[in-house]
Amino acid sequence: MLAVLVLGLLPRLAWAWGAEGHRIVGWVAEDLLDAPTRAAVQALAGQESLADMATWMDEERPRLRHALPGSTAWHYENIPVCGGPAPEACPHGDCASKALERYRAVLADRHANPAQRLLALRIVVHLVGDVHQPLHAADDNDRGGNDVAVGRGGAPRGRARVPGHRHNLHAVWDVDFVHRAVQGERDQEFAADLVAAHAGDLKRLEGGTFQSWINESHTIATEFVYGHLSGFACGRVPPDAIALSEAYREEGARIVRERLAVAGIRLAGVLRAALTRP
Q: Cα torsion at 177, 211, 91, 255 (round to 10°)?
């Protein structure tokens, strides 16, 4: 565990995907922390904000792959979009829901080593954000949309699919729709706007379990992310880049805005329950 924490002192690798979204989730939660929870977080993490620690798992992913075997798979839950036999949902316990449960328990354990609890805090902060991204809870044999190429702007159709290419369906939801939702506002200010917009509904939104939140994301992925995708067919990765309509992009940005808000609200609740309840 201590070796893992030392990673935080080493130069970080750039891992840009989703950084803005994760930071916004962290700022939303930060705004909603009550005094006892804030004090408990600071006792573990010092003055590092939730927004700062929210990207740690992505930035350190190559190193964590060796330090925490199986951790690459903790970021998502491969639930099939279409019918048919489902693969084993969580092989060896390496999926988002099981990792969240394990590390939430460590975070809540007052007898655990502080270094272990800090690691657990970093993991919980990141993974609560991840499970609210629809494509972290859905798959159509396309690596959660990573193999579905998306045309950029007016780019012509017919461009060959390039696995892992920056402009794929997953990246659009991770990054592009976040930018579209934020519209140039600073992350912390945007998060404050989200908190204000949901101020009257915090208790209702905070409810549920890790699995129910993952199921929400899966429903959105099934009904909209794939369901409204031009030319979508179950089990078939489109050979050419897909053009996304303006209506799809607008609705995608609206969904992302809502998911970022809900993720931050729920993260604050998870931390309050883990750090301050007997």
A: -10
Handedness of CA 213, 77, 89, 67 (dihedral sign): negative
Q: Compute CA 64 distance to the chain's CA centroid, rounded to the nearest angstrom.
A: 17
Joined tokens for residue 75: 């970021």
Q: What span, in angstroms and rounded, lies between the C-alpha atoms of 268 and 6?
A: 26
pLDDT of residue 159: 34
Three-class secondary structure of residue 210 per DSSP: helix
Tens-place pLDDT, residues 65-74: 999 999 999 9
CA pair distance 72, 61, nearest whole angstrom: 7
The CATH code belonging to domain 15-73+92-276 is 1.10.575.10
DSSP 8-state symbol, 196: H
Tokens of 188: 């912390």
**Which tens digit of pLDDT belongs to each residue from 125-139?**
999 999 999 999 999
CA-closest candidate to residue 44, choices 271, 277, 273, 254: 271
List CB contacts of 28: < 8 A, sequence separation 6 or more. 191, 194, 195, 260, 261, 263, 264, 265, 267, 268
Radius of gyration of the chain (CA): 18
